[in-house]
From TrEMBL:
The gene is 6042259. WD repeats lie at residues 166-185, 198-240. Signal peptide: none annotated. The lineage of its organism: Eukaryota, Metazoa, Ecdysozoa, Arthropoda, Hexapoda. The keyword Cytoplasm applies. It comes from Culex quinquefasciatus (Southern house mosquito). Pfam families: WD40 (PF00400). This is Uncharacterized protein. SUPFAM superfamilies: WD40 repeat-like.
Length: 366
């Protein structure tokens, strides 16, 4: 082979010296010599220093042991999906953006949010597959709030779709993604992935819920119509909680002994909620049709629990027999996405904050 005749690929794809496209918006407006520069013009004219604003599609809410609240809002209306999160000292100030203690704009969608056992640390999952550990304050940085990112790890191939914490002495969490992968992490001064189940499910993982009475057991649900029990102490950690359901499971909540004696509540895409005893898998103890659209979230407060779907209403029930206590009226202007339980006023059974799209935050008592 005559190597002197080979093509220099680097030289071939290098911009020639005479290629000098407009460098400013003003030059580009008067130039006709360099067409097809639409993306460059968009980057130049885009407001990169726009003030941080809470995006209207409120998706996630979390409150720590000190009563501080974080709301996550995603923006699905622009050319690029973005997000923002705001933090308040207490729920009574939400969603007044002028009273926020900290805020941050992100150039990706936030898909999961959890406060850790340390009230000054919280975790985020994103649609780019990253898990982030954030701190709201640190004595080394002085008094008051000082928001900063402690660590970020991008180990999921697809978007993080579920997250939950293990409750115990060890700082451990579990995450799931759209590609069916589950990862177990340790967090503290940084984030470290310690266990990976690559093919945990054959479709998107929709929910992860840990057993708060055990340090190594949790349940997962997926669009593959299965719910699994996991015990990280076993060499083969997964067993079926409910296999081959008629519809995809969309959410899950592992109750405590004080709530429903350790029952796992499962929501499905047909709008029904089912209770399953972990000691008797593949059998629904109780089932109820709650909405005509898929169940989005199940949240317990003692023996009472709230159910949110792809609707603008929330329904509140008592105990395992699905006794309807209350239905939120008037309905929200759009989807309800999350719930924060609160202490009820005198004479009331329960109270919570409902969070939804169109920057909807409202306290409900029943």
């Amino acid at each position: 082979m005559d190597y002197s005749q080979r093509m220099n690929m680097i030289e071939m794809f290098t911009d020639p010296p005479e290629y000098r496209p407009p460098a400013t918006v003003e030059e580009m407006a008067g130039s006709v010599d360099y067409p097809n520069l639409n993306s460059q013009q968009y980057r130049m004219t885009r407001k990169t220093n726009a003030p941080t604003a809470l995006n209207p599609c409120l998706e996630l809410a979390a409150r720590n042991s000190a009563g501080q609240v974080i709301l996550v809002g995603n923006n699905y209306m622009g050319r690029r999906w973005e997000s923002s999160f705001y933090g308040w000292e207490n729920a009574a100030d939400v969603p007044d953006q002028s009273k926020a203690c900290f805020k941050r704009q992100c150039r990706y969608s936030i898909t999961a949010l959890q406060f850790t056992q340390d009230p000054n640390l919280f975790l985020l999952g994103s649609d780019k597959g990253s898990v982030e550990l954030w701190s709201t304050r640190n004595p080394a940085r002085g008094d008051g709030y000082s928001l900063y990112q402690v660590d970020v790890q991008s180990e999921h191939i697809e978007a993080v779709s579920a997250m939950d914490l293990f409750h115990g002495d060890e700082n451990k969490l579990v995450t799931g993604s759209h590609d069916g992968c589950i990862k177990v992490w340790l967090y503290g001064a940084d984030l470290a992935s310690i266990t990976t189940m690559t093919n945990a499910h054959t479709d998107e993982i929709t929910a992860l819920t840990t057993n708060r009475n055990e340090l190594s057991t949790f349940a997962s649900t997926s669009l593959d119509r299965s719910a699994l029990l996991w015990d990280l102490r076993k060499p083969r950690p997964a067993t079926a909680l409910f296999a081959k359901h008629q519809f995809a499971f969309t959410t899950a909540y592992w109750t405590t002994t004080d709530e429903a004696n350790g029952i796992v509540a499962l929501g499905d895409a047909a709008g029904s909620v089912h209770f399953v005893d972990t000691r008797q898998p593949n059998v629904f103890l109780h089932s109820a049709k709650v909405f005509n659209k898929k169940i989005h979230k199940i949240s317990f407060d003692g023996t009472r629990f709230a159910v949110l779907g792809n609707t603008n209403r929330a329904k509140f029930y008592e105990g395992g027999q699905f006794d309807l206590l209350h239905e939120s009226t008037p309905p929200a202007p759009d989807y309800l996405r999350d719930v924060l339980w609160d202490k009820p006023a005198e004479g009331q059974m329960g109270a919570c904050w409902l969070v939804g799209w169109n920057t909807f935050v409202r306290r409900v008592e029943f």
